Amino acid sequence: MSVERPVHPVSIVMIEDDEGHARLIERNIRRAGVNNEILAFRDGTSALTYLLGPDGSGEASARRHLLVLLDLNLPDMTGLDILEKVKANPHTRRSPVVVLTTTDDSREIQRCYDLGANVYITKPVNYDGFANAIRQLGLFFSVMEVPQNP
After folding, report:
1. Between the CA atoms of 72, 146, 34 and 17, what dihedral angle is there, to the nearest 10 degrees?
2. Fewer CB within 10 Å, N or C, the chain?
3. Sheet holding 119-122, edge to edge
4. DSSP character for 60?
5. What is the phi/psi pair of residue 146, to 5°?
6. Positions in the chain whose pLDDT score sits under 70
7. The pTM is what?
């Protein structure tokens, strides 16, 4: 019996500069049974180049199906800058963004939601909470509407 792959697999774009956190996040994603491709970026510049393309138009992601895991504290820019650019671009604005950060400041959390974040998780994350959030994202993958190619 073979298992069919989804027609439009979702790639996970993980933007996290701390290697230890990145490994922990990936391990928890895998433990939660999510086997999607994970593309890891250690800084905002390279992540934005991937997401929006070298020209910044976002055309590069027009037919990609992405979920963004975003740390707010990056070496070259803030995660808020990335969140704002991703949600402002017509090609990436429908991609769900999960903010993973050490800050639990209520104003910053509200700012993330105002900019379009879908989920905000404070690190270090407790395993059950994290696994549950990732499982919910897995359910989200399975019902996510994919725009038809023109």
Report:
1. -20
2. N
3. 38-41, 11-15, 66-70, 97-101, 119-122
4. G
5. -105, 125
6. 1-8, 124-127, 130-131, 133-150
7. 0.81
* Strand-strand pairing, 38-41 and 119-122: unpaired
Q: Which two tokens stand for residue 20?
A: 């230890």
Q: Which residues contact 73 (CB under 8 A, 6 or more apart)?
A: 17, 79, 101, 102, 103
Q: Residues 92, 56: contact at Cβ < 8 Å?
A: no
Residues 52 and 60: beta-carbon distance below 8 Å: yes
Tokens of 50: 């991937």
DSSP label at residue 73: B
Residue pair 15/47 in contact by the 8 Å Cβ criterion: yes
* pLDDT value for 141: 54
Q: In terms of CATH, what superfamily is 11-143? A: Response regulator (3.40.50.2300)
| pLDDT score of 127 | 67
Asked whether the CA dihedral 120, 123, 129, 134 is positive or negative, the reply is: positive
